[in-house]
Amino acid sequence: MDTAHILQFVDKVLSAKTGKHLNDLQRKIIDGILKRQKYSDIADTYGCTAGHAKDVGYELLHMLSDAFDEPVDKGNLESVLERQLNLNINFGDRNTTNFWESNTMNYTNSCSELPTPTPDKSQPATPDYQDGTNQVKIEMVGKLRELGLKDEQIAEVLGLALEVVKQMD
Predict the structure, then answer these.
(1) Phi, psi of 90 (to 5 degrees)
(2) Which tens digit of pLDDT belongs to each residue from 3-37?
(3) DSSP codes of every residue in 97-138
(4) Are 57 and 50 in contact (CB under 8 A)?
């Protein structure tokens, strides 16, 4: 996954939870944190004071904590995003300018929300996946297909029912 996809995922989750999209500084902060930059370096890149970048970063991490329902800080943002995307991403050499270049993906199923089929015909066969996080998962289906994953693998990685994945075009 590259930075653009990570930022798109975070933006969609935050938008679904708060109704607000990421602004430019928040995007730079996420990118900078993932590159292990200090707030002063992020501020220099964006053109603001380090104090302002730190304040916005603190507020952003608090919003992410609320959105992901787990504590998020500079030190664990990468691992939280990995869990939220249900992908274990090996980012390669972190000393390169763009450490997203070597993005070997190892797929794990750490989702505790796997849908269970119900024999009761009065209930829908598939759950409603229109809330923010699951909608993002559905939108990830096409991207994972482009990476060569089969529908069965995508269903396992995203924690979606296979029939839901097969319905996605």
Answers:
(1) -95, 110
(2) 888 999 999 999 998 898 999 999 999 999 999 99
(3) S-TTSS-EEEE----S--------TTS-SS----SHHHHHHH
(4) no
- Tell me the C-alpha distance between 39 and 53, whole Å: 6
Distance of CA 20 to the CA centre of its chain: 16
CA separation for the pair 100, 66 (Å, rounded): 26
Of 30, 25, 29, the residue nearest 9 (C-alpha): 30
Taking the C-alpha atoms of residue 110 and residue 79, their distance in angstroms, rounded to an integer, is 13
Instruction: Write down the pTM of the prediction.
Output: 0.53
Task: Report residue 54: phi and psi, to 5°.
Answer: -65, -40
Going by the DSSP 8-state scheme, the letter that residue 19 receives in this structure is S
- The residues pairing with 87 across neighbouring beta strands, listed in sequence order, are 107
87: enclosing H helix or E strand: strand 87-90
